[in-house]
Specification:
Helix content is 53%, strand content 14%. With 386 residues, it is an alpha+beta fold. Bound molecules: acetoacetyl-coenzyme A.
Amino acid sequence: MNFQYSEDHIAIRDAAREFAEHEIAPSAVERDKTGEFPTEIVQKLGELGFMGMMTAPEWGGAGLDAVSYVLALEEIAKVDASVAVIMSVNNSLVCWVIETFGTNEQKERFLRPLATGQKLGAYCLSEPGIGSDATQQATTATLQSDGSYLMNGAKNWITNGTTADHYIVFAQTDPAKKHHGITCFILDKGMPGFEIGLKEDKLGIRSSDTCSLGFTDVRIPPDRVIGTDGQGFKIAMETLNGGRIGIAAQALGIASGAMDKSIRYSFERRAFGKPINQLQAIQFKLADMQVKVEAARMLILRAARTKDAGQNYIKEAAMAKLYASSIAMEVATQAIQVHGGYGYVREYLVERALRDAKITEIYEGTSEIQHIVIARQLMKEYELRN
Ligand code: CAA
């Protein structure tokens, strides 16, 4: 597979890097402390076309490929993983769903403002008692005689939960059909009976906004069904396939950011009469970290290119997320070790990388779920060949 970037890819990566360094980095430490949502930054990302990167220009998006998307996300995550997840959810889990499964009327009404960054979206699949076992949706949406649905239940761990304008929500419309009776809806903040919980106090990605949601007899008109009644679980899974490439790129950005800081520090810090980058113990660590970062980048680019080629990328996306999230934890841990005691305090920034990295092994499918997805695809591929 050819991993050469085009001139456009390089221009997008550089634009994202420039924006991250000048517009995001200055407030990242403070927002990590306070948990403040980066409202202005998200607005500017929208103006730059980063909130609907892969959405067609016809619907207000930038019309770029998945490779451009992962290059931009890595640059943003290098500086602030909180901003990266806000961007990733809006792009992969919200705009993509509406563009792929929505009607033209829904695209005009919801996708255009989301892709241009005027509105923000959230994706609501997990529930208080249901995370990995996503077929067991307990939230219900019961069809009424006038064609509308009444939604009842709760969702948990919703990224952009308090700040979003529109919410992609999955609910059981026909429990007898199990996961074939799940339907996808789009809701607005402020609908009667739709309650937004308090922002969670998290270990990492602290300035992103995560909360639970409650639904008590929320009346949903039929024009808010995305796709068809009963198609929801398939929509949820196909959406997460693409989302996982984004989270992999976020994990890579966390790792490569920690790597950059470690190299810089290794020039500054002296021990045993020389800069520590002349000590073999540190050199070996840096070399191992770099191999992992580059291997993750290859897996992510492969997944993105497979998606761009219109081929099945389920396994490639899961492998990229599984590996990138795991090495983000390892590289962040080693970055702290390279920094010694300074790595353990906030000022040197690498402790944030470790706190931010952990969630990439959990959301959009835990590492355990990625193993299941990869193994099942392997069996399918074997059966197809034999
Ligand atoms: N792509 C497309 N379809 C898929 C799929 C995939 N990756 N994985 C499963 N499916 C389909 C199957 O083909 C099957 O379809 P049919 O019944 O029509 O044949 C259907 O889904 C059910 O699949 P299984 O029979 O394999 O069901 P299972 O219960 O054994 O496994 C699962 C399902 C793979 C574990 C699934 O529940 C899953 O992916 N769980 C993880 C959920 C998850 O990732 N949650 C993240 C929440 S969102 C989030 O984190 C966003 C955020 O805020 C950042």
